[in-house]
Amino acid sequence: MSPDSYSWIEKSLDTIHRADWYRSVQTIHGRPGATVFLEGRKFVNFASNDYLGLAGDERLIEAAVAAVKEFGTGSTGSRLLTGHRELHRQLEVAIASLKQTEDAIVFSSGYLANLGAIASLTNKRDLILSDRYNHSSLKNGAVLSGATVVEYSHCDPEDLRIKLSQYREIYRRCLIITDSVFSMDGDLCPLPQLFAIAEEFSCMLLVDEAHATGVFGENGAGCVEHFGCTGKQLIQVGTLSKALGSLGGYVAGSSSLIDFLRNRSPSWIYTTGLTPADTAAALEAINIVREKPEIRYKLWQNVETLKNLLANHLVTDYEDVTNYQLPITNYRSPIFCLLLKDAATALFWGKELKAKGIFAPAIRPPTVNSSRIRISLMATHDLPHLESLTTALAAIAIKGRTSKNSVYFS
Ligand SMILES: *Cc1c(COP(=O)(O)O)cnc(C)c1O
Description:
The chain contains 15 helices and 15 strands. It is of the alpha/beta class. The strands form three sheets. It has a seven-stranded mixed beta sheet, with helices on both faces. A four-stranded mixed beta sheet has the order 1-2-3-12. The longest helix is centred in the C-terminal third of the chain and has 24 residues, at 293-316. The radius of gyration is 22 Å and the shape is globular. It starts with 6 loop residues before the first helix and ends with a strand.
């Protein structure tokens, strides 16, 4: 045996550092919100998926505290073995009611929901067609299933059709998997076209509504509602940890689908049930989504305001800057991304923003192929927050021009 079987780890870390891919965690203090404290300084927060600002909301906190006092901190085992709480079932009924599906099942995270659903619906005799930009949990669910995985070009129904024509016949079942709002680009999958193709080629369709639930649709049910696809046969996955401000994931769909998952999903069967606190907080969040649409309207108003601010400050004022483009009309969600030429440039922008009191993460490979700054909006951002972001970006764009840090918006 080699004298040091673990030395490769340090070498591998060196490589990560050299590529400017190294990452570490920053500690924030206090409650989450539109502003946060980092290293003792206050920042305007554009790094959160808490789109409705519910993670620090008094109503969710009270619901969670009450649940802890009544039911304790842990759920003590898997739900099948140990039993579950009425709260768990109430949450599932509330999700199904929001989504207008027959039933829903709650997992301990969105990641586990995707692993569990995909791996139990398909196996080695089957085919999975996966959007190239899908979230890691969809991709790893596909790997775990043992099915043959074919990736199609991002949001490209034509490529999906070509690949299905080529491969569909050879396999038993087929599952198409896609994010509904892509987490790193903020664009939407072409859901109606995907539906038509799934029908044509006898495929199941799974959409991950992680960034859409509570944000899109007339009732906040997600992109399925936004595209008018409510009530259609499909598998909806999502998380309780973004707009719903808690922790956990879910699958919503027909009662036979949910019953099947309860019997076959290893990441549900063999893991401890959601804690009472998380369950109660998520349930309260769904009530708020249904009863207070004005929070969602404020979020969308912020999206419009930021689009206009960017258009005015980064195009009109500095249109002599030739090294970035700003196709504002492409923004369809509260996720904005500023594409940059490489990881080092993204780190430069991240640092400059931080120096100006803006917290927005540089996203680099291997999370994405092309490095970027990711900006996510919250309903609780106010106009001065959005103005400070725009002013900072405009100043860095000018500085970046002289130091040849080319940038373009996508
Ligand atoms: C965040 C995210 C998940 C994972 O959800 P968690 O509850 O955080 O585990 C799954 N899919 C997509 C598209 C996501 O953005």
